[in-house]
Amino acid sequence: MLKLFSFSFLVILSVFSCKKVPEKIEEEKKPNIIYIMSDDHTTQAFGIYGSRLAGLNPTPTLDAIAKEGMIFENCFVTNSICTPSRATIITGQYSQANGVLDLEGNVATSNQYLPAEMKKLGYQTALVGKWHLTHQPNFDYYNIFTEHHQQGSYFDPYLTESTMHYEPFNSMPDYEGKQYKGHSSDVITDIILDWLKNKRDKNKPFFLMHQFKAPHDDFEYAPRYKDYLKDIFIPEPSSLYDNKNNGSVATRGKNDSLLSVIGSSVSKRNTIRNMGMRIWSTEFTSRNNPDFDIDRTKNLSDREHTQETYQEYLKRYLRCVKGVDDNVARLIDYLKKEGLYENTIIVYTGDQGFMLGEHDYIDKRWMYDESMRMPFFVRYPEKIKAGLRTDAIINNTDFAPTLIDLAGGQAPEQMQGHSFKHILQTGQEPEDWQQSTYYRYWMHMAHAHANPAHFGIRTKQYKLIFFYGKYWVDTKDPDADWNKKSWGNRFELDTPVAWEFYDLSVDPKEMNNAYKDPKYKDIITNLKTQLLAKRKELDEEDKERYPHIQKVIDIHWND
Q1: CA dist., res. 229 & res. 221, Å (int)
Q2: Terminus-to-terminus CA distance in the chain, angstroms?
Q3: Which of 39, 229, 286, 378 is most buried, judged by most C-beta within 10 A?
């Protein structure tokens, strides 16, 4: 019996030994990653963020994607202006570290760390649309807006493809590249769909950056949206007409003496740049809505003019947003049809927020939430549960480390941001996760939007802002050199210095600067301590590089 058992065991063993055992288990298939970014698409212009505009249902496609993943309530930009924000995203660094303080900055090809790391991880990389960082993109494939300093045109834009000769925009003719017919949002989506269908290596995972020009000013929408929202009254922010105790002497001037200068406006308040100057001009009306009766804006009271201007401003903006949403729908339809949707991480954001009449402001640049907050959500059903929201604080330095982490890599040491992959996958903040974010706007009194330079710190509950009111170049130094030909800039005008503090738990619209309220004295002192620590940690101090600014800080720190 024992001999029979032994023989049977040997026969079974020999059978199993004859089966071919794979040398190694096949690696888990890497997810594709699509990073979609529009220009100036603010959280107020979504359904998912519950703003006054949510009832208009401005983003049905984007809202549906967001609800299948995680929505971030507290995603913030570190410098609310196009080129610096994009530089931060591509490098994972704050402005002073990557050297891009304002719109004249650039990022060398070798310093574009995000696409470089994705290539190392085996990804085929592609970038289509708005670039705005001057130097040649470090992507396997690119097709980017060329004209107007890489800003591009809304209609019939010129783009430069990776197969073409490349020169930085400051040395190339304004219309270098190939011209495409149609609206820019449609054009770049067409290019992307063609790349996905016909040009990518289908044996590799892809990392694709889909970057819209819309809804950047001057809000030129595709003609098919002309009647969208035509007869709808767009809800107004109450602060459009009454800004209460928002701001300070830094934003208003002594006895409101700078109200007509600082902060471009919807109303006629700012006599240098207000929305009516452009939106009711013959040039922009003819390009956007040639049938519009421009005479109806004449002989209006100031309040009526503000309301008419706001309504037209928002409708043009939201028509551009509609074009973005519809083109994202085209992309999603293709991914689903080709069986790519479930294994593709989809990220959506804007390069910063945007003022849609709040505090009677237009544009971005401010540290106020409408300008500072970025929309941000991620869908990846394999690892991220649907229907999640988080109030964890993230900023745009964190994007690159997170994308690299999701791709199976590790962020290089020079990146200052942190991966929030753990938050995406668990819905929980790690115990040591950041509880505040740093902000700095460097581009003092620029482009007639005229925002004073400032920096600050934001936590979940509080915001502290210091307006130091000087350009980063010492314009009082006779040997200093800066771009004196740059349009609409008043870099030499120093503006009043002031602090602002907002308790966001009771004042989420930032209508009451409570800096001088004694009940917040200890909280403000603590925030100043945190702010000093942040500036040191992030190499954002001014003593060595910008001593003329440091002097202002030293004099007014304890005001």
Answers
A1: 13
A2: 97
A3: 378
Read off the tokens for 29.
Answer: 């298939």
The number of residues in the chain equals 559
CA 459, 465, 466, 469 dihedral sign is positive
Q: Please state the separation of Cα 195 from the chain's center in Å.
A: 25
Region 77-102: mean pLDDT is: 97
Residue written as tokens 């591009």?
152
Q: What would the 3-class secondary structure string for 8-23 be?
A: HHHHHHHHHHHCCCCC
Backbone angles phi, psi at 32, to 5 degrees: -75, 160
Alpha-carbon dihedral 375, 381, 385, 389, rounded to 10 degrees: 0
**In this structure, what token pair is assigned to residue 311?**
């309504």
Lowest average pLDDT, out of 143-157, 302-316, 382-396, 539-553, goes to: 143-157
The secondary structure of the chain in percent helix, strand, coil, rounded to multiples of 5, reads: 35, 15, 50
Q: Are 420 and 345 in contact (CB under 8 A)?
A: no
Contact at 8 Å (CB) between 511 and 245?
yes
Other Cβ atoms closer than 10 A to 298: 8
Q: Is the pTM of this model over 0.85?
A: yes
- Rounded Cα distance between 464 and 513, Å, is 10
Give the CB-side neighbour count of residue 191, counting CA atoms within 13 A: 32
Mean pLDDT of the chain: 92
Q: How many CB atoms lie within 10 A of CB 72?
A: 25
Average pLDDT over every residue of 243-256: 97
Torsion of CA 157, 159, 165, 169, to 10 degrees: 70
293 backbone dihedrals φ, ψ, rounded to 5° = -85, 95
Q: What pLDDT score does 27 carry?
A: 53
User: Does residue 360 have a cis peptide bond before it, meaning omega lies within 30 degrees of 0?
Assistant: no
SS (H, E, C) 382-404: CCCCCCEEEEEEEECCCHHHHHH
DSSP 38: E
pLDDT in tens, 328-356: 999 999 999 999 999 999 999 999 999 99
Per-residue HEC secondary structure of 50-87 comes to CCCCHHHCCCHHHHHHHHCCEEEEEEECCCCCHHHHHH
Whether 456 has a pLDDT exceeding 50, the answer reads yes
